[in-house]
Design brief:
By secondary structure, this protein is an all-beta fold. The protein is built from no helices and 11 strands. Strand 9 and strand 10 form a beta hairpin.
């Protein structure tokens, strides 16, 4: 089982990034997929979640209207489009797959700074 995040990096305030999480080793379409983030000295928090067929989506209040989660059950990939980024979005972003079991990726660093 693997979840591999990519797309992180350094971006200026107000900028955008698109994170990807490529899954393998399990039946991706049967898993609820989520993005979490963890900033230094803070607990890991849920950012966004998407249902198995993409029909059920929810977001943390802090990212509503700026972030968008989506999935491609053919490519076995979940995405997080992040717009209007600010310094408070700086964190390591992780994807998680949940069904009977729970799997985590290794994380990708997002740094928002001028």
């Amino acid at each position: 089982v693997q979840l591999v995040e990519s797309g992180g990096g350094l971006v200026q305030p107000g900028g955008s990034l698109r994170l990807s999480c490529a899954a393998s080793g399990f039946t991706f379409s049967t898993y609820v997929m989520s993005w979490f983030r963890q900033a230094p000295g803070k607990e890991r928090e849920l950012v966004a979640q998407i249902g198995r067929n993409g029909g059920s989506v929810n977001y943390a209040d802090s990212v509503k209207g700026r972030f968008s989660i989506s999935r491609d059950n053919v490519k076995n990939t979940v995405y997080l489009q992040m717009n209007s980024l600010n310094a408070e979005d700086t964190a390591v972003y992780y994807c998680r797959a949940v069904h009977i079991f729970s799997y985590w990726g290794q994380g990708t660093q997002v740094t928002v700074s001028s």
